[in-house]
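User: I'm putting together a teaching handout on how multi-component assemblies are represented. Below are the sequence lines for each component of a complex, exactly as they appear in our records. Could you produce the 3D structure of the whole assembly as structure tokens, so the students can see both representations side by side? Please keep the chain order the same as the input.
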Amino acid sequence: MTSRRVMGRAAALALAACRPFDQAQAGAGSPSALAAPLHAQLDAQYDQVIADLVRITETPAPPFKEAARAALFAQMLRDAGITDVTLDAEGNVLGLGPGREEGPVFVVSAHLDTVFPEGTPIKVTREGERLMAPGIGDDSLGLASLLVWARLLEANAITTRQPLLFVGTVGEEGAGDLRGVRYLFTKGAYAGRIGAFLSVDNADAGRIVNAGVGSRRYRLAFKGPGGHSYGAFGIVNPMGAMAEAVRGIHAIAVPTAPRTTYAATVVAGGTSVNAIPDLVTLDVDMRSGDPAALGQLEAAVLAAADAGVAAENAARSTVAGAITVEPQLIGDRPAGMTPGEHSLVTTALRASQAAGFAARLDQSSTDANIPMSLGVPALTIGTGAGGGRTHSLDEYLETGRQRFLAGLSVGLAIILDHTDAAPR
Amino acid sequence: MTSRRVMGRAAALALAACRPFDQAQAGAGSPSALAAPLHAQLDAQYDQVIADLVRITETPAPPFKEAARAALFAQMLRDAGITDVTLDAEGNVLGLGPGREEGPVFVVSAHLDTVFPEGTPIKVTREGERLMAPGIGDDSLGLASLLVWARLLEANAITTRQPLLFVGTVGEEGAGDLRGVRYLFTKGAYAGRIGAFLSVDNADAGRIVNAGVGSRRYRLAFKGPGGHSYGAFGIVNPMGAMAEAVRGIHAIAVPTAPRTTYAATVVAGGTSVNAIPDLVTLDVDMRSGDPAALGQLEAAVLAAADAGVAAENAARSTVAGAITVEPQLIGDRPAGMTPGEHSLVTTALRASQAAGFAARLDQSSTDANIPMSLGVPALTIGTGAGGGRTHSLDEYLETGRQRFLAGLSVGLAIILDHTDAAPR
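Assistant: Of course. Below is the structure of the complete assembly, with chains in the same order as your input.
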């Protein structure tokens, strides 16, 4: 559908559309964060949203290979009525709607990438009210949400005070290490000009993430001379250093609030059962909502690696060479928080409650980490009414009409409120 | 060349050929373990041996894929005058020469397989007196040695007291785990009918291996529930059990005589930096010339694995499941020894010395481990005059004529002596 179709009714609807969401339940039907007339328009978009979801999901976006989905999403933004759509150098899709005022932009964002490697078969299937496919909730739903909101804003000729920037980011997942949103905030055309950031990235519209869990990830490369398992018996073995390091890491005490965690996650080394290896690598994941706690944890992990090396070099012969460790930073997501009293947070909680969700604050590691760490107000919200098995091939999304639309209403209500939306 | 060509001279040469090797140096030219007339025939075979070496080496024989080289070697044995050549069910090549008496056979063996995986480019190159190619010494040289000895025995119409069985074995290297020789001694047509065993398997004719180092190799699979590195923090991690196991293994005290060794050699586990793994595997190599010491070491390693599991289950939560370990035996080479006073050993030492080598006893892990462990007299000897970089792509073999032929003379002298060789 195009925005032109409902344009004639725009003036009449616009006033109703921009009413505060906390009066929204007064409208007919199920709870919504939107006034009844606008919710009715959202309801009319249900089939289109499902069609968009399927189309986006079935366009693969493996890590570091989001180009095909980016091209699709850019075209879909144009079809939604956004005329100024571009791709930046990192691969993010940017769609700008002008504001009534110059000044910092309000970013509404979802991520393009999935965790699924190239070649993963992706076909959306339906089972009752569930749609099933890898990535359908994480984050095809976020992208489809941006599109329907853009269509409704355009259809109702709604203007926003700040310029509104719809963004599809690359590299949110895993090794992507937030590269898209990092570029947006530090190098792209809008660096330094973003006033607030709303990330749409989960299937539960009751979950408002205002705390960004930071992470530091290392690959510890333990190196040694290696040698024949029989002939060179007695020389140092990087296995020993790695094992002592794991032991040291596992003994680190961490605070429980904010939740601070670590894990030795991936290990690899050696080529043959009859050779002392010359290299063993160990990947370590560390997370905390508190940058100071994360820094202390990181120092303790690196000290454990050094202690493992020292213990191995003291325990066995270094005549053929000693063990060393080279820590490589393979992941770096800064921690941050948007205070609970910030209007973006209170607005989100009220919108979620108005739509009938058990609204609650949570912490996670999402695109919002970057603005949070830079002191830019930011949230990550859900837009669905549930789903599960995220990051697995069994991922699913609940799409029962009423609750699904209630979930979709929350984000649009936040946008309307935060931007002092008004009819053109 | 065919054996027929020199057949006419056979009667005259045969007596000289069978003279004891310790009088051999009296002949013209460089030291040899053979009487001068037979050494002169060996010398005449030099170019053929080099040609055989190149042909065998350039016929790939990756682990578990020795069929092409086996077919070639079978044909070459037939060309050498052995009429009864067969392949057994395991893939070994067997070439039988009848003895003057019925009874146990004397096996002279080399192995067909290399350590190099399928697809490894193998082309023999020359640099002065060195021939270079992966596997050229280990064990193309052994196979080529068997061929020239067979040709000379046939050419001189020499009969042996025992039936003489030339064997090309499969699976000597690494994961092959001696499968060829194991089949020969325990399941094949000659099981229970082998009186002595001579393995030809290194490029140093001064090295007489009369002690078989036994090995036991395990893959220890540490399993646990796995989970999200952040969400599931606090649950048991198989990394912890593996690390404690390595630590326990590295603390095991072993005897120095006979040399007894262990090594944690290959480790693998985990799929993503943000997931606690559900599986970590650790390969452990254990070796000793003493079966009792090897058994004690094995028990200590398995106990260390169990202790690692217990420590991890005690240290973290098992609410999602506990850590277990499944030890899988992936290598089993029995230890054994042929006493230094056995005639096979003293004969080998004298032959090596007669050829001008610094003859010495050594221990290793070779095809001879199996007969040694069964109480069958067995040796592994070298036939070359040096080489190096075995098991690497840079492997080379010294082929300077006089020393190379001296090296080749040793094994034939042992055969002649051990079988009471006589003219037909």
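A couple of points students might notice: Confidence is low (pLDDT under 50) at residues 1-12, 22-28 of chain A. Chain A touches chain B at residues 174-175, 213, 215, 217, 229-230, 233, 237, 239-240, 242-247, 250, 259, 261-277, 280, 283, 285, 287, 315-316, 330-331, 365 (CB under 8 Å).
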